[in-house]
Structures are given as C-alpha cells and as structure tokens.
Write a structure and sequence with these properties.
51% helix; globular; 182 residues; single chain
C-alpha cells in the first residue's frame, strides 16, 4: 500500500479524553504535526497544545552548514556563516508555523462547542493506527487529503485578503468616527 498524506481530524464531543489521545498521537508513524483545539461551552476557542516532529532542525542544521562554509573565512567567517544559516533556517520554520496557523483557523469551525479536536498532519501507510487511537479515546475520525486541505486553506487566505480590500462594514465605519479615524 502506498503512503497517503492526510489531515486526520479526531473530534471529541467533550473536553475529556483529548490529552491522552494527543500524547499517543505524537508517536503515530508518519506524523509531522499535531495540534489540539478545545472550544468552551461559551464558544471560546483555545489552542491547547501543538507538536512538530523535528522542530528546530532547520534552524540548527542551516546554522551548522553556514558555519562550515564560513570556515573559509576563519573564526569570524564561522560566526557570520552560522548566524546567516540559522537566520535562513529560522525563516523557513517561521513560514511553516504561519501556514500551520492558517490551517488551524480553517479547522476551528469544526470544533464543537464544549468539545475538542486534534488535527494531525500525517503520511499514512495505513489508516489503522489513527483509527485505533480514535476508537480507544472515543473520538470520531475524518480524513482530508493533504492536497485538498491545502487548497481549502489557500482559498480561505485568498478570501481574507480580498476582504481586506473591501469597503468597511457599517460597524467599522461607526467605530472609525465622523473623521474616518478610530
């Protein structure tokens, strides 16, 4: 069976049960990213926990590579090379974090009031490990192909960008006051 890259969503009807499932999910084969979202009965959404396999590797790896290249320039070259490499690696990690945040915003509507959702970015050779995890903890499972989900996130980002170019709503005009400034 070939690997399938999916967003796997584990939905919990109540706030109990997601923590042990999240801790187990960190060990799923092919897991890249996990995030736990919880919505209170008052409708307030909270990101309770996140996990990224290999977090920091790009920053450190790029820094070491830059330091090695900097050996040509002596001690100062190593320092400058490490600093430049780490900055580039960190920029890549920040971009990934930004994309993950946009994905969580899109998923937020799926979190039930008084419930929780664990979102997993996983390359699955088989759906069994995630399905068994969900069954053990009383969660429902939904899979979205990673490509399809990425398109949903991009569409939401595009809609948000278009929204910023629109005329202000009546509430926004009222908040701005008669002179147009808030």
């Amino acid at each position: 069976m070939s690997e399938q890259h999916n967003a796997v969503l584990l939905t919990f009807p109540g706030p109990a049960g997601w923590r042990p499932a999240f801790d187990e999910a960190e060990h799923l084969p092919g897991l890249r990213v996990a995030a736990a979202l919880e919505r209170g009965t008052d409708g307030v959404l909270e990101v309770k926990d996140t996990f990224t396999r290999g977090a920091g590797v790009a920053t450190v790896g790029s820094g070491v590579l830059g330091g090695l290249v900097g050996l040509v320039g002596g001690p100062i070259g190593v320092l400058l090379g490490f600093t430049a490499g780490a900055a580039l690696g960190n920029a890549a990690e920040e971009r990934f974090a930004s994309e993950t945040g946009a994905a969580l915003i899109v998923l937020s509507a799926r979190v039930p009031d008084g419930g929780a959702l664990i979102a997993l970015d996983v390359r699955e050779a088989s759906p069994d490990p995630a399905d068994e995890l969900a069954a053990r903890h009383g969660a429902t499972v939904e899979r979205i192909d990673a490509h399809t989900f990425t398109e949903q996130v991009r569409a939401a980002e595009k809609k948000a960008e278009e929204r910023t170019g629109e005329e202000p709503t009546a509430a926004e005009r009222m908040a701005a006051g008669p002179d147009g400034e808030a």
